[in-house]
Design a protein that fits this description.
The chain is mostly helical. The chain has 7 helices and 3 strands, in the order ααβααββααα. The model has no long low-confidence stretch (mean pLDDT 84).
Length: 128
């Protein structure tokens, strides 16, 4: 759990930034939110897009995003169980923030793209 520095948001103009970062803080939350911007995904589909995340960490991050009202977890009564994750209306309000982070990263960082993941994303974006 993150350490809360201030109990209220009347401390300074930067407190709103701190509060926002506390909500989306976590190594994987921003990336999970980014992928859910493309639409509803099942657990293994998210995990496929994040090959370096452990199952336990993905579960933890998704639970926190659900608890904070950004992600909706829908369980279907099937065998085996079918669980889907999607953004809530509140989660969708983070789209400009997430896309600004992506744009900044595209411009100011260098990294290798996984061709399989990029092809999956490109296909899902063009089919939307």
């Amino acid at each position: 759990m993150t350490r809360i520095r201030h109990q209220s948001l009347d401390c300074s103009p930067g407190c709103a930034v701190e509060a926002t970062l506390q909500l989306i803080d976590g190594k994987w939350k921003g990336v999970i939110l980014y992928h859910l911007l493309q639409g509803t995904l099942r657990f293994n589909a998210i995990r496929k897009r994040l090959p370096n995340i452990t199952q336990r960490m993905l579960t933890t991050q998704l639970r926190e995003l659900e608890r904070d009202g950004f992600v909706l977890r829908t369980v279907y009564p099937e065998v085996p169980p079918k669980v889907e994750y999607s953004l809530t209306a509140r989660g969708r309000t983070l789209e400009p923030v997430i896309m600004a982070l992506k744009a900044w990263g595209d411009e100011h960082t260098t990294f290798r793209h996984d061709p399989e993941i990029c092809a999956d994303l490109k296909g899902s974006l063009t089919n939307s």
